[in-house]
Design a protein that fits this description.
The complex is a heterodimer of chains A (73) and B (396). Helix content of chain A is 19%, strand content 30%. Chain A has one domain: Alpha-Beta Plaits. Chain A is an alpha+beta fold and 73 residues long. In chain A, a hairpin with a 5-residue loop joins strand 5 and strand 6. Chain B is of the alpha+beta class. Chain B has one domain: Cytochrome P450 (Cytochrome p450). Chain B is 46% helix and 10% strand. Chain B has a six-stranded mixed β-sheet with strand order 1-2-3-9-6-4, with helices on one face. A three-stranded antiparallel β-sheet of chain B has the order 5-13-10. A two-stranded antiparallel ribbon of chain B has the order 7-8. The chains are: A alpha+beta (73), B alpha+beta (396).
Chain lengths: 73, 396
Amino acid sequence: MIMTWTVSVDRGACLGSGICAGSRPDVFKFDGHHGTPVTATVDPDEDVLDLADTCPSAAIFIHDETGAELAPR
Amino acid sequence: MTVAPERVHDYPFNRPEGLDLAPAYRAARTAPGMIRVQLPFGDPAWLATRYEDARFVLGDRRFSRAAATDRDEPRVQYHRGNGGILAMDPPDHTRLRVLVASAFTVRRVERLRPRVREIAEGLVADMVAHGSPVDLVESFALPLPVQVICELLGVPAEDRHLFREWSDGLLSTAALTAEEFTRNDQELSAYMAGLVAQRRAEPADDLMSALIAARAENVDRLTERELVELCVGVLVAGHETTATQIPNFAHVLLAQPERFAELRATPDLIPAAVEELMRFVPLGATSAFARYALEDVQVGAVLVRAGEPVLAAIGSANHDETRFPDAERLRFDRPETGHLGFGHGAHHCLGAALARVELQEALRALLALPDLRTAGDPVWKTEMLVRGPRSMPVAW
């Protein structure tokens, strides 16, 4: 069984730096003035964890299928 | 349909003395499409002056920084430094950026706030002990971010007189000889390589040691040269812009005493004031770091052809009335967010969270001086990519 991760962005916290969408447009897009996930789930991907860890507003959250928060770490 | 020959504007528009936004930007924003500009060196470029266009170009991966390496990049200075991660595209850029960015997250930086406040208050106490007037740049604006970035990175702050000279040389637009430019670059790199060697022997709780550990863990993730360049980049970028914005903010606030009084009465407005001042102050003497289109891309009314460079005029975008109504007015209750003062997209300022804390704590510390006022005209930097006072006499 392949685990998938859930990607979410806290729009209240997002400051619209655009780092996520500018780095991984396959995972994030820019919607109005906020970053937002392209799809609700992604395959496990270390780069996506890194982007969540280093989002300047700590607005990106990654959860696994058990609901455990993987990032930000 | 025939298209009139495009007029190419000489650029940059802004004068280095002062913080005014050149009127040519307003004209460009109200004209359809983007305008063509020619800098003193390099390819002619498109200039995005409107908020939507500038943000789009900065945020879209079809516009490449890495592609500028092999091109005659539009620029104001003859010499081209090593661009570091600012000359890279994702995923290489992301690989290096995250190594450093983990030290600059909101959570990590908030833990530094008490120390930043202590340094800022200490510098103000030294100013008071010295007595009016003092040069705000040398006494406060420069030592604050220098001390903070030195402690964070692991560079001895007492070496400031050494690396300030090299750092100035790297960011200068002055007509340095090739020899002078290269010597600056090499001396700063050699200095940093020496510190890296020391830290490798004796690790400490700082970013340099963390980067050394990251390389020890996976040598493919970070080369030795990249490690040294990242440290140089963090040191240079980590103090120059903040050291410039502190006197710029003071300059704007002292010219609008009612805004300064508002902050004094309601210090809770300081974070909002920093955001508004980041929007309001057009820091750049020029637009820089052109993005080259990797394919044909429509930007507003203009089809940018593959291989053409586009510059984003951040100061202009931040004064675009369609995004920021009443843009020329400084107001701390502005509801619009998303200024481009820290850039946008993959290259958004790595140190933005730290800069915010430093700028907030700088304003907080300066508000403690009763009746802070100018004590003479500032002397403006004239040969740097950023605009701001080189010296600024103040009294209280």
